[in-house]
Amino acid sequence: MIFKDNNLAITRLPSRNWFSWVDGILVFENANLREFIRDLSNHFEIDVQWDNKLSLLKCNFNHRFESIDLQNIMESMFQKYGVESIQEENGALMIVQTGCS
Are 20 and 66 in contact (CB under 8 A)? Predict the structure, then answer.
């Protein structure tokens, strides 16, 4: 629910992970790369970038992270989906490779 123009309105949240900072759980169900990046970026308050040519856009993620640590998430994504990333000096995360075809 939100207030808009002094009226109460019910609206759908942009992601089921919108409140992940409260419960400490990130859940991805049939999520594509854009959804994955959006939720990582929101949760960790970092800039996440990727090369648009990556075929990962065709892949879907199904994973539940209860121990939310960026390094552990990216290690798990590498093992399960071949996702490789680089932490940039400015703190941004760059997705550089995927195992999806």
Answer: no
